[in-house]
C-alpha cells in the first residue's frame, strides 16, 4: 500500500518522464538496489521496483549513456560520502545524452513548525537522534548533483515540503 506522499511524488515523476522507461535505484537500509519501474507502478503510487536487485560491483547493468531516465531515491536511506559520490557518478554514466536524472530526497520545510514536524512525519528521515535527522533534512542534494556535472532543471516539493524531487540533466546535454 502506498502513502499519500508517495502518490504525490509518483504523479510528479509521471509528469516528468511521460511514459519513458524509468530505472530506479533505491535503498533498503543498506546497499543500493535497482530495478525498472513501469508507468502502471507509478500510477499506483509506487516508486520502488517490483523486484529490486543489488548493484554488482556498484554498477548498473547498462551501457554508457543508454538510459533515458533514472530515479535515484535517497528517501529513507542513502550512502554517505564517497559511496554517494560513486553512485551519482554511476547513474550519470548510464544516463543517455539529454536524459533526465531524478533524485528523490528528504527536505527541510521552510516554516519552523513544519520543519520540526518533518522530523517525525512520513517519510521519516533516517538518523538515531533528532539532531541527526535534522541534519539529514538539510542535506544539499541539488548542489551535490551540480557538483557532479549535472544541471538542475527544477526542484519540486511534495508532502508539505518534506520531500524534494530534483530533476537534472547532464550539463553538456542541457547546454546543447
Can you walk me through this structure?
- The protein is of the alpha/beta class.
- It has one domain: Rossmann fold (3-Layer(aba) Sandwich), CATH 3.40.50.
- 34% of the residues lie in helices and 28% in strands.
- The chain contains 7 helices and 7 strands.
- It has a 7-stranded mixed β-sheet with strand order 3-2-1-4-5-7-6, sandwiched between helices.
- Strand 6 and strand 7 (163-170) form a beta hairpin.
- The longest helix has 14 residues, at 4-17.
- The model has no long low-confidence stretch (mean pLDDT 90).
In short:
Helices cover 34% and strands 28% of the residues. It is an alpha/beta fold. The chain has one domain (4-175): Rossmann fold, CATH 3.40.50.
Task: Please tag this protein with its features.
single chain, 176 residues, alpha/beta, Rossmann fold, seven-stranded mixed beta sheet, 7 strands, 34% helix, 28% strand, globular
Topology:
Layout: H1 4-17, E1 22-27, E2 32-37, H2 39-43, E3 53-54, E4 67-73, H3 81-94, E5 95-106, H4 112-117, H5 130-137, H6 141-147, E6 150-158, E7 163-170, H7 171-175
Parallel strand pairs: 1-4, 4-5
Antiparallel strand pairs: 1-2, 2-3, 5-7, 6-7
Amino acid at each position: 500500500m502506498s502513502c499519500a506522499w508517495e502518490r504525490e511524488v509518483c504523479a510528479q515523476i509521471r509528469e516528468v518522464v511521460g511514459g519513458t522507461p524509468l530505472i530506479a535505484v533505491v535503498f533498503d537500509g543498506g546497499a543500493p538496489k535497482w530495478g525498472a519501474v513501469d508507468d502502471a507502478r507509478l500510477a499506483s503510487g509506487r516508486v520502488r521496483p517490483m523486484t529490486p536487485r543489488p548493484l554488482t560491483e556498484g554498477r548498473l547493468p547498462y551501457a554508457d549513456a543508454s538510459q533515458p531516465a533514472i530515479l535515484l531515491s535517497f528517501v529513507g536511506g542513502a550512502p554517505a560520502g564517497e559511496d554517494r559520490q560513486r553512485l551519482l557518478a554511476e547513474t550519470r554514466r548510464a544516463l543517455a545524452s539529454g536524459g533526465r536524472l531524478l533524485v528523490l530526497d528528504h527536505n527541510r520545510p521552510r516554516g519552523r513548525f513544519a520543519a520540526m514536524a518533518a522530523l517525525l512525519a512520513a517519510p521519516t528521515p533516517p538518523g538515531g537522534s533528532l539532531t541527526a535527522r535534522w541534519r539529514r533534512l538539510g542535506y544539499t542534494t541539488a548542489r551535490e548533483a551540480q557538483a557532479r556535472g549535472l544541471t538542475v532543471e527544477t526542484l519540486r516539493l511534495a508532502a508539505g515540503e518534506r520531500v524534494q524531487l530534483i530533476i537534472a540533466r547532464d550539463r553538456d546535454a542541457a547546454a546543447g
